[in-house]
TrEMBL record:
It comes from the Bacteria. Keywords: Hydrolase. This is HotDog ACOT-type domain-containing protein. CDD domains: BFIT_BACH. The keyword Hydrolase applies.
Length: 130
């Protein structure tokens, strides 16, 4: 592995504007967006060590998205992401989400995201290796 940042964790709190309008549960699209952001931050940090100077990446695919339980207003959400595969230009990231409450932690969601590295707005090889 020739880069320092293979994993990344972040948290956020579910606020009312993130929920379905009829129920105080987080909207699936909001959760997907937060998962994509966590994965993107992981990739961005990994690219600090790109020997080819790639400094950006864009999401090109998300797959195997699973919402296992709901999260309500006030829940603390922990997102864990890990780079599990690198290609010449692509970087694949697995994200898992957990709902933290006073009575424990429960797995909320998971999914996989694929990014391609860019430099100066064009797709380029990133030079990273696992």
């Amino acid at each position: 592995m020739n880069f320092r940042y293979r994993s990344f964790e972040t948290t956020f709190t579910v606020f009312p504007h993130m929920t379905n309008y009829m129920y105080p549960m987080v909207f699936g699209g909001e959760m997907l967006s937060q998962m994509d952001i966590a994965a993107a931050m992981n990739v961005r940090r990994a690219l600090y060590d790109s020997p080819t100077g790639c400094d950006n990446a864009v999401t090109v695919h998300c797959t195997d998205i699973n919402f296992l339980v709901g999260a309500q207003v006030g829940d603390l959400i922990l997102l864990k992401s890990e780079i599990y595969e690198v290609g010449t230009k692509s970087i694949s990231v697995r994200v898992e989400g957990y709902r933290e409450r006073a009575d424990g932690v429960e797995k909320l969601c998971d999914g996989r995201f694929i990014f391609v590295a860019q430099k100066d707005g064009a797709t380029k090889p990133h030079g990273l290796e696992l």
